[in-house]
TrEMBL record, chains A, B:
Gene3D superfamilies: 3.30.450.40, Heat-inducible transcription repressor hrca homolog, domain 3 (3.30.390.60), Winged helix-like DNA-binding domain superfamily/Winged helix DNA-binding domain (1.10.10.10). Negative regulator of class I heat shock genes (grpE-dnaK-dnaJ and groELS operons). Prevents heat-shock induction of these operons. PANTHER family: HEAT-INDUCIBLE TRANSCRIPTION REPRESSOR HRCA (PTHR34824:SF1). One of its GO terms (biological process) is negative regulation of DNA-templated transcription. The gene is hrcA. It comes from Brevibacillus gelatini. This is Heat-inducible transcription repressor HrcA. Keywords: Repressor, Stress response, Transcription, Transcription regulation.
Length: 341, 341
DNA sequence: TGTTAGCACTCATACGTAACGAGTGCTAAA
DNA sequence: TTTAGCACTCGTTACGTATGAGTGCTAACA
């Protein structure tokens, strides 16, 4: 375990490096107000910290830079909760105050604001809607072979899907089916829908035995959940960081962010609550010099989506964590109140 | 006007520069098979071409580079139609063959393929749906004050919008309204909808005089067209270009591309048919070293959307133009056949 | 008169050297 | 245990020179 003084110095180094982006030397630290030791003492401690793996030296005559292990210790033990400024709080509150039900929009704005506030890249995973309850289902035939299935949830979210119609199914059959569904399944959470179809509807449907299979197929397709939506904002912010003035590094990162499935990978961490992945801890080479902080937001206690920030390893962890926590809490409250209506 | 030989040489220079990205010297040109003159002769012509404004010299002892005027002449007079390779044709045909009606998806794939084929950034503006005909309209009340309005077109496209309900309007009134709309307005093109509402529906609606205004308000909101969707793919491709190895240049461009409204600006050129905007001809500073080629695709003869390519001024104009033309034609055919069904 | 060979000149780039200075590690004194 | 002092390291910067691609001009040539 690190001594108090070692922790103090490590904290000072990380802190300094986060703001200066330059390797920090012993003299710089010794001049800080919260440090009462000469540069020589600091040098000794730095040497020890390097041996222990918390610091690294780009080259002999340079200052020290935190290693991944150093950042990890900083994040786990040294970070103090940051106060958000009035302006920041204002922006966030404004977001929650907006009376937009359309959750897609809320999520989009969230990503926007998150990126603005932190000056890093924001990644937001839209809320899964399995918890939402069915308000209305509609199947609109377009011609003999195709139809559009539309599902409206009680929160006003609309999913639509183009489906192929099996042969021999006419508009009247579809109408009967839809009426049945609306009568029986309103207010059922989406995740229960398929199951309830089998429980409650299949009996009635089986009367026209020959079309039973086809009907089930239609429903099966109609109720398949939409692919997940990821929102990315401020991807170019990384270019403001001095350590990313290199096109090749930036290219790798931005190419990664262009791919939806990779984005999902990045932000789709299991479990709820705040997670920090620092530098080398990331699997993907392109972002081994980046850190990702994510947290989940929830609806009625269950996590339904994620918000995350991607920035350089040299990230303002304290601030980002505060913003994310505050935001996720607000989003959850907002969603939940909307859900309970 | 340029002499034949001047045109030959200008063509050779542009051609060479497009592929090498280096200022081209007189010797390089004189060695080309299609040129039968010594480097000295070429030098004289080059000097003249520079004086005329078609070429530029980065510095005294460097070769020449085409100016915006030079590219313009090249594009307007010298370009020969390029043949697409089997592989390229294959990819494009595959796109058209896919039986996806959901036009959003088609447009998304289009952008993807365009960027893949050209190695530049693709911007695609989704088809306006004003020409699409109403298949079904539905208003689903969520609670006392809010409802979702859903419009389905005959091509299977679904637009939805959250609307506030005026006081005193109950589910039964809404149902009456919706039934009326579906009975009277099916198969009416969306752009005529509002007008037809006033012509054909207002009479019947006026019976319940007190709610007339409110009803109109609801319809007004429901029928407001969705904001336009722009798809961007391969934004990072610009980083592969040697002249964009500079983070600051790239940053300006990518920041521009991050803004939806700016994208619309870039691609939303008036009129139909192929347009090329070269380097300095662009308004925005960030892309004064880029060229944009766009063309429109149409539905039943009317232009409804745009496809475009953004690349360095030093772009493979011939190839990009061929790909865009071929693609726009195919898209138009696809949409139109779908429209006529 | 148009074309070409020859040559002096220009200028960005690469390279090697030297000076600089930020920062270290070590030693010895407080 | 802490700190002042000092030699040493090594990346960065500055500068002068060599290099070479490419030009413009002149004079000879077809």
């Amino acid at each position: 375990m690190l001594s108090d003084r070692q922790q103090l110095i490590l904290n000072a180094i990380v802190d300094n490096y986060i703001h200066s982006a330059e390797p920090v030397g012993s003299r710089t630290i010794s001049k800080r107000e919260d440090i009462g030791f000469s540069s020589a003492t600091i040098r000794n401690e730095m040497s020890d910290l390097e041996e222990l793996g918390y610091l690294e030296q780009p080259h002999t005559s340079a200052g020290r830079v935190p290693s991944t292990k150093g950042y990890r210790f900083y994040v786990d033990n040294l970070i103090q909760p940051q106060h958000l400024s009035e302006a920041e709080l204002g922006k966030l509150k404004q977001l929650f105050a907006e009376r937009i039900l359309h959750s897609e929009k809320v999520v989009e704005y969230t990503a926007q604001i998150l990126s603005q506030l932190t000056n890093y890249t924001a990644i937001v995973l839209g809320p899964e809607i399995f918890e939402h309850r069915l308000k209305h289902i509609q199947i609109v035939p377009l011609n003999e072979t195709q139809a559009v299935a539309i599902v409206v949830t009680h929160t006003g979210r609309v999913e639509n899907k183009l489906i192929d119609l099996p042969e021999g199914i006419g508009p009247s059959e579809i109408e009967r089916l839809v009426n049945l569904l609306n009568a029986k399944l309103t207010d059922v959470p989406l995740w229960q829908l398929k199951q309830r179809v089998y429980q409650e509807i299949s009996g009635e449907m089986r009367r026209n035995a020959e079309q039973y299979e086809e009907m089930l197929m239609i429903l099966d397709k109609s109720l398949k959940p939409e692919e997940e939506r990821v929102y990315l904002r401020g991807a170019t912010k990384i270019m403001n960081q001095p350590e990313f003035r290199d096109v090749d590094k930036v290219k790798d990162i931005l190419e990664l962010l262009e791919q939806q499935d990779q984005l999902l990978h990045l932000i789709g961490m299991p479990g709820e609550g705040l997670k920090v992945r620092i530098g080398q801890e990331n699997q993907l080479d392109a972002i081994k010099q980046c850190s990702i902080i994510t947290t989940s937001y929830s609806l009625g206690g269950k996590p339904v989506g994620m918000v995350g920030i991607l920035g350089p390893t040299r990230m303002e962890y304290g601030k980002v964590i505060s913003v994310l926590n505050y935001l996720a809490e607000g989003l959850s409250r907002m969603l939940t109140s909307q859900f309970e209506k």
